[in-house]
Design goal:
This protein is mainly α and 414 residues long. It has helices spanning 4-35, 50-81, 86-94, 101-134, 142-173, 178-201, 214-226, 263-266, 271-286, 289-311, 315-320, 328-343, 347-368, 371-384, 393-399, 405-413; strands at residues 208-210, 233-237, 248-251, 258-262. The chain has a domain at 4-19 and 46-203 and 292-344. The protein contains 16 helices and 4 strands. The protein has a 4-stranded mixed β-sheet.
Length: 414
């Protein structure tokens, strides 16, 4: 029989291993960027100056060095919540209200969420108003920052409370298959959120206006028609009110799909380059990458609920991770905290799959747009976003959802 001390030892073993691996990979990346910051890779020398390249190096090095501190804080908080008795403290405090299980569990998550928000705030403030501002990217005002937080809290309360309450109700009232019912419920919620996000949630944070350039709009419509793709709208998002970073994306599904451009992107790329970027994004849809991502998420959610169902009533699971009571809300909270410790090594597999999707989308873009336009657009995006042209190979294979810049350009030129 597995002892509580054994579970604790396994948890600490995985915990320490994850810390060491994260710091090791970050250090490798830091060294690699340092060594390669004095020369612009040949493939990019026609677009990116040495000053731009070194700015990108400083930007990425700053984020790495700052990341060390926040990693330590976040890892410390996991220990405090679990073995340090933090979850027990919230539980004992909330139980003083003497409410029924459903209300107790809901309030427990409200308190935990509020504390989590406050703990995350310093990192968000430093990243936005120090790092991003230092390198000329930040356009977020204090008012926008505060309003974003308030809106996120409001949305979380409106959507989160009913979701949490429903899952807790299923755990309390349903039979041993509660995890299956909860999975079905949360899957429906996720699909509903994907559907309503473009028209109901995104406009709460940004203004979306129809693309005003008739010439570009006509080229986009021709591209979509040639690829047999339907889009409800072609919109421009006022991303410049928060940041100078640029991007473009498709959102929604079914008849609710729309093309969205950051206004920052339209100001730096030519029409043909924008078409090439859009063709790449279109490739993700035509190869069903979005659908595959949704199905993968649904599958992992199913596995997660199944595993939670297995350990939900196990005293060893709770005691081995520092929790001294068995309740539905403690089970969920503890599982969500410790699961990433045990599943961290899945990261490179998921990164590999994502990178393969990027290559497929690039290949699709070459069929519907000029590859030289896509190459020049990518170079400008790396330049304007201070992208890292020379990541450490091992770090990149472990983390990066997109292929390294050099590898991606080489693949396009073949």
């Amino acid at each position: 029989m597995i002892m509580t001390s054994t579970v604790t030892a396994i948890f600490l073993g995985f915990f320490v291993f994850k810390i060491i691996l994260i710091f090791y990979l970050d250090y490798r990346n830091q060294v690699h960027i340092n060594l390669n910051q004095f020369t612009v890779p040949n493939l990019f020398s026609d677009t990116i100056s040495l000053d731009d390249h070194q700015k990108a190096a400083r930007y990425n090095l700053t984020k790495i060095k700052t990341g060390y501190l926040f990693y330590l804080i976040n890892f410390s908080m996991i220990l405090i919540w679990t073995l340090g008795g933090g979850l027990n403290l919230i539980q004992s405090t909330v139980s003083l209200l003497h409410l029924n299980d459903l209300f107790t569990g809901t309030i427990f998550f409200l308190v935990l969420g509020l504390i989590g928000l406050l703990l995350q705030l310093p990192e968000n403030i430093y990243s936005t108003f120090v790092i991003e501002a230092r390198f000329g990217f930040n356009k977020t005002t204090t008012k926008i920052f505060v309003m974003d937080i308030l809106k996120e809290i409001l949305i979380s309360l409106i959507i989160g409370i009913p979701v949490i309450a429903t899952i807790l109700y299923l755990m309390i009232q349903a039979d041993s298959k509660w995890w299956l019912y909860a999975w079905i419920f949360i899957t429906i919620v996720k699909l509903f959120m994907i559907f309503i996000y473009p028209t109901w949630i995104a406009p709460l944070f940004n203004k979306f206006t129809p693309l005003s350039s008739e010439g570009l709009a006509e080229k986009i419509k021709n591209l979509l028609q040639s690829a047999n793709f339907f889009s409800k709208e072609i919109m421009v998002m006022d991303a410049s009110k928060r940041s100078k970073h640029g991007n473009a994306y498709f959102t929604g599904f079914g008849k609710n799909k729309r093309v969205v451009f950051y206004d920052t992107l339209l100001g730096t790329l030519t029409d043909n380059e924008i078409i090439a970027i859009l063709a790449h994004e279109l490739g993700h849809f035509k190869h069903k990458h979005v659908l595959k991502h949704i199905l993968t998420d649904i599958l992992f959610t199913l596995i997660g609920f199944y595993l939670l169902g297995l350990v939900y009533h196990s005293p060893i699971f709770y005691e081995g991770h520092g929790v001294n009571m068995i309740t539905p809300w403690l089970g969920i909270a503890l599982f969500l905290m410790v699961a990433p410790i045990y599943t961290f090594l899945l990261t490179p597999l998921l990164s590999f799959i994502s990178r393969s999707h990027e290559f497929e989308a690039d290949h699709f873009a070459r069929q519907y747009a000029n590859k030289s336009d896509l190459i020049s657009a990518l170079k400008k995006l790396y330049r304007d976003n201070a992208g890292n042209l020379t990541p450490d190979p091992l770090y990149s294979k472990f983390y990066h959802s997109h292929p390294p810049a050099i590898e991606r350009i080489q693949n396009l030129t073949e």
